[in-house]
Design a protein that fits this description.
Helix content is 39%, strand content 29%. The protein is built from five helices and five strands; from the N terminus they run ααααβββββα. The protein starts with a helix and ends in a 5-residue tail after the last helix.
Length: 171
């Protein structure tokens, strides 16, 4: 191959990648449900890094941590938990949206998340905060300034998986 052809091929690759990316964006735009799932997965990944300040950025400013706990107390509790915990791993087993195809105009929704949280605290291996192997929560998600944040989290019973998914409609 001569030098001109090599230059054209090398110049053409980025152009083709850009065109492919534009086609993907235009023909297959990211849905609100996909944005929510990505936000939840990103929050889980940050949880694994044990960075409480980064984790709190995934929560709304009025996230109700606990009736006797304000935001600063929650941050301190997370720091204490992260200090004691080792080898944290979050494996999201299931995500079920309250609305199958959320419109772009949506500003709030709920998602059932079933996840396995594992790690070591005080030398003891633990799996799930519930002690049942997996944890299930209904997350209320709010879109603020174009970003999906966790507004609240409520534990749900997963002893009967079919009923756990029905609990998403309860408030």
């Amino acid at each position: 191959m001569n030098k001109k052809k090599i230059v054209w091929v090398l110049a053409g690759i980025p152009v083709l990648l850009l065109v492919g990316w534009l086609v993907k964006i235009l023909l297959f735009p990211v849905t609100e449900n996909q944005k929510i799932e990505q936000a939840i997965r990103n929050a889980a990944a940050v949880f694994e890094t044990k960075n409480s300040k980064s984790l709190i950025t995934f929560l709304t400013s009025d996230f109700p941590a606990h009736p006797q706990m304000d935001r600063e107390s929650m941050l301190n509790y997370l720091k204490m938990f992260f200090f004691q915990a080792r080898d944290l791993k979050v494996s999201i087993e299931h995500l079920k949206h309250e609305v199958e195809k959320l419109p772009n105009t949506a500003s709030e929704t709920r998602v059932l998340v079933v996840a396995k949280v594992t790690g070591v605290i005080d030398g003891q291996q633990f799996q799930a905060f519930s002690g049942k192997g997996v944890d299930a929560v209904v997350l209320t998600m709010q879109k603020l300034q174009g970003k999906w944040l966790i507004a609240s989290a409520r534990n749900v019973d997963i002893s009967d998986p079919g009923k756990a998914f029905e609990q998403i409609i309860k408030k």
